[in-house]
Design brief:
Elements lengths: L1 E9 L9 E9 L5 H11 L19 E4 L2 E4 L5 H8 L5 E4 L6 E3 L2 E2 L2 H10 L26 H4 L6 H5 L1 H5 L6 H11 L7 H10 L12 H5 L6 H15 L8 H15 L4 H9 L4 H6 L1 H9 L1 H10 L4 H5 L7 H13 L7 H4 L5 H12 L1
Parallel strand pairs: 1-5
Antiparallel strand pairs: 1-2, 3-4, 3-5, 6-7
Helix pairs in contact: 3-7, 7-10, 8-10, 11-12, 11-17
Length: 364
């Protein structure tokens, strides 16, 4: 048997006292989970310790907490691994998930944040036309694209880890946007464009994600919420060319056009093209673009003062050698049909098995 120490953040709103930390010794084999340690404390030390849990097998998603500062499922984290990450002689720090109000100890108010945001994206099918006599059916291969987002167990761990939510609590969030893609990618749904337009126009929608990868790192089911957000963006800009007021379309097109022309990022052109739907000229004459550009002048002036941007860099930007080849590669790629192979298609294995899976997916 191995000895471990859990340092747990305690909070009881009924007591009127502020939150505090308490350390508990735990006697468990190293292969047992952090949740087992918490339940041992609850059984032997303090029955008032509060935590949600049910399946204890990473299926129900109830036991989300932060362990040593990282959001995770307590039942899916071996106590020996947590102790190793904490460091020699240091306790395993367990606290409630972030970005959600704490109700008691390790229990957070999922309704106030997580479930509220899930409802924001209308998490059910909105089929077109009259309903069929029986169920809605589609070929199995038509659902391949949404298998990854369907694996979500609604644990809220990604919401806890999301840095964008820390800055903007109104951000729709990684879990809700991953759920949105589950229906955007479903061929039975008849409101695909409407869903995408709604999330593209929302200032707290798909373009509020900062690509920090935190949700991908902590997701216990490899849903990769950020990847689903990027797919929503690609569907909005590529498939439906939604020219949104948040300039997501313009930023993507502007970035691509800059790389196509120069091969490297021309920073002085990024904002004008982003506000001008990808065009430098349109960015100078479109009334809303002019207003947005004017609002960025303080940032541009700071860049000039720091030396990051110089008058020469604004006017002249060198092209990569043999830029024509870069342009040819881009045109070749864009001429081919887009095929995204998510984790549930490609798999984790290497060698012949993975190659066979990928080859089979491409045939679809």
């Amino acid at each position: 048997m191995s000895d471990f120490t859990l340092k747990i953040r305690r909070y009881d709103p009924e007591s009127g006292e502020p939150a505090f930390w308490h350390e508990y010794p735990v006697d468990l084999p190293p292969e047992r989970s952090v949740l087992d340690g918490i339940l041992q404390i609850k059984d032997r030390e303090d029955a008032s310790l509060a935590i949600r849990c049910s399946c204890r097998a990473a299926i129900c998603g109830s036991c989300g907490v932060r362990i040593n500062g990282k959001s995770a499922l307590a039942c899916n984290t071996r106590i020996s691994d947590a102790a190793r990450r904490a460091g020699p002689g240091k306790p395993i720090v367990v606290e409630p998930m972030g970005n959600m109000p704490v109700l008691k100890d390790l229990i957070v108010d999922m309704d106030a944040v997580h479930w509220k945001k899930i409802m924001r994206v209308v998490p059910w099918l909105l089929p077109a036309g009259e309903p069929p006599e029986r169920e809605y059916t589609v070929p199995a291969e038509a659902m391949i694209d949404v298998t990854q987002s369907m694996a979500c167990i609604q644990c809220g761990v990604c919401v806890s880890a999301c840095l964008s939510l820390e800055v903007d609590p109104q951000f729709v969030g990684p879990a809700a946007l991953a759920k949105a893609y589950r229906f955007v990618g479903d061929p039975r749904d008849g409101q695909t464009e409407e869903r995408l337009r709604d999330l593209a126009e929302d200032p707290h929608g798909i373009y509020d994600c900062t690509h920090c990868f935190a949700c991908i790192e902590v997701c216990p089911k490899d849903v990769a919420p950020m990847s689903q957000i990027m797919r929503l963006r690609r569907r909005a800009t590529g498939d439906f060319e939604i020219k949104d007021s948040n300039n997501g379309y313009g930023h993507e097109r502007g970035f691509v056009n800059i790389i196509e022309r120069w091969g490297t990022l021309h920073e002085a052109q990024v904002l004008p093209r982003s506000f001008g739907e990808g065009s430098f000229v349109k960015g100078q004459v479109k009334p809303s673009a002019v207003k947005q550009l004017a609002e960025t002048l303080p940032t541009a002036l700071r860049g000039l003062r720091s030396g990051k941007v110089t008058p020469k860099k604004v006017i002249v930007h060198p092209k990569l050698p043999d830029q024509a080849r870069v342009r040819k590669v881009m045109h070749t790629i864009e001429s081919k049909p887009r095929l995204e192979l998510n984790l549930y298609i490609v798999g984790d294995n290497s060698g012949e098995e993975q190659g066979a899976m990928a080859e089979g997916s491409q045939e679809l």
